[in-house]
Amino acid sequence: MPPSKRDDLIDAAMRVFYRSGFHNSSLDDIQEEGGISRMTLYNHFKSKDELMVAAMRRRDEIFRNRMMKFAESKGATPRAHIEGVFDFHEDWFTGDDFHGCMFINASAEFSIADSAPRRIAAEHKQEIVRYLIKLLEADGCPAPHDLADQLNILIEGAIVTARVVGQVVENGTDPGAPARLAKRMAINLLDQHGSRAS
Description:
Elements: H1 5-20, H2 27-34, H3 38-44, H4 48-72, H5 78-93, H6 102-109, H7 116-138, H8 144-166, H9 177-192
């Protein structure tokens, strides 16, 4: 089924918000990005806020699907998939379209904790942890929730470091380094918890 005008609009908004931020992006920017008329925009969304929510939900869906597909291509075992999550992040950090994490960026832009962008950002991060828990349970980890939280802290730290330091220091020659370091630390944690080596 071909994408609808609504889908085109959400995809354009997602790209603009991710690239330029939420407050710095206008509806005109989104119209220009997607080649969409103002009438089409208002036929589908009453406000920029509604469009932000839809764009963040789309980004969540696309990001998690890509991450899981990438991780699961790295081998047949849960341990290989866990390590693959870190490889996915390195691949993301070194790509041409890495502008940090949309969900971390949203949390920085919106000060009210109960705002829709902050809630969606939290949901996204919780879904990543749930995926890690599922993999750790399949691997036979005795404390999957605790270890998933630890692995997620490594992932989150790598994302921020790649954006804040990796793209800047030494002219951004190695933004993937934080993901590789996080992976080494994750492997140590997995080994300590008796994970089956991939």
